Amino acid sequence: MTVRVLLVDDQPLLRTGFKLILEAEPDLTVVGEAGDGATAVELTRSMLPDVVLMDIRMPGMDGIEATRRIVREGAAAHDPRVLILTTFDLDEYVIEAVRAGASGFLLKDAPPEDLVSAIRIVAAGDAIVAPSVTRRLLDKFASRLPSMRESTPAPGLETLTEREREVLRHVARGLSNAEIARELVVSETTVKTHVGNVLAKLGLRDRVQAVVYAYETGLSRPGQHDPS
């Protein structure tokens, strides 16, 4: 199956570079390009891309608002995934893009093979393309997240089993299913089932939103690498 990609960046040279990389792959095709958020939303409606490679800082409508609109308009028949382009110093606006429904991050200076791999992963329905990026981003900007008070029960948290909470803590640490399976000494399939249950019970779209949820509810905290 060919993955349809929409490139969104206000720098034509960057778009050209990305297009050359992606078009060299037999399973990826660039269906359109946009230099601002408003155009990105319009092209998503008409071109029906599987993945939108989205810059954040653009003239007019920025990548955050564009992501919000694209995700909101997504339907069962066409549910595009948004992959955010961020700078090496971790753009402070990325956290807002995650809340808007983005499925992952990619560093602008990432190697070509990482770009290709990231798009395939997101297209397949997974998220957290670069766990280390997600972790560092949330650690850096956790102060901007409205944390729940210790005495306030986290919304939905009571619906999770103890094992599901444990899995969520590991997800918030940026671990993959395979890594969580090794930590808990269970099969990867079991972990995948637990993650699916967590997302369903909490009404979350993917792992990225699960990480944000864990931070907002206090289940995970900045610099906390121990799952206990």
Task: Offer a quick outline of the entry.
This protein has 228 residues and is α/β, with parallel strands linked by helices. The chain has helices spanning 12-23, 37-47, 63-73, 94-99, 112-123, 131-141, 162-172, 177-184, 188-202, 207-216; strands spanning 3-8, 28-34, 51-54, 81-86, 104-107.
Which class do the helix and strand fractions yield?
Answer: alpha/beta
Euclidean distance between termini CA atoms:
41 Å
Taken as a percent bin, the fraction of beta residues is 5-15%
Largest beta-sheet characterization = 5 strands, parallel
Number of strands: 5
- Rg from C-alpha positions? 17 Å
Q: Give the averaged pLDDT, no decimals.
A: 81
Counted by DSSP, the helix tally is 10
- What is the helix/strand order? EHEHEHEHEHHHHHH
Note the overall shape: globular
Task: Provide the spatial order of strands within the biggest beta sheet.
Answer: 2-1-3-4-5
pLDDT below 50 for ≥5 consecutive residues: which ranges? 147-151
Report the helical percentage.
Answer: 40-55%
Task: Explain how this protein is built.
The chain has helices at 12-23, 37-47, 63-73, 94-99, 112-123, 131-141, 162-172, 177-184, 188-202, 207-216, and strands at 3-8, 28-34, 51-54, 81-86, 104-107. With 228 residues, the chain is α/β, with parallel strands linked by helices. It contains ten helices and five strands.
List the helices and strands and how they pair.
Blueprint: E1 3-8, H1 12-23, E2 28-34, H2 37-47, E3 51-54, H3 63-73, E4 81-86, H4 94-99, E5 104-107, H5 112-123, H6 131-141, H7 162-172, H8 177-184, H9 188-202, H10 207-216
Parallel strand pairs: 1-2, 1-3, 3-4, 4-5
Helix pairs in contact: 2-3, 7-9, 7-10, 8-9
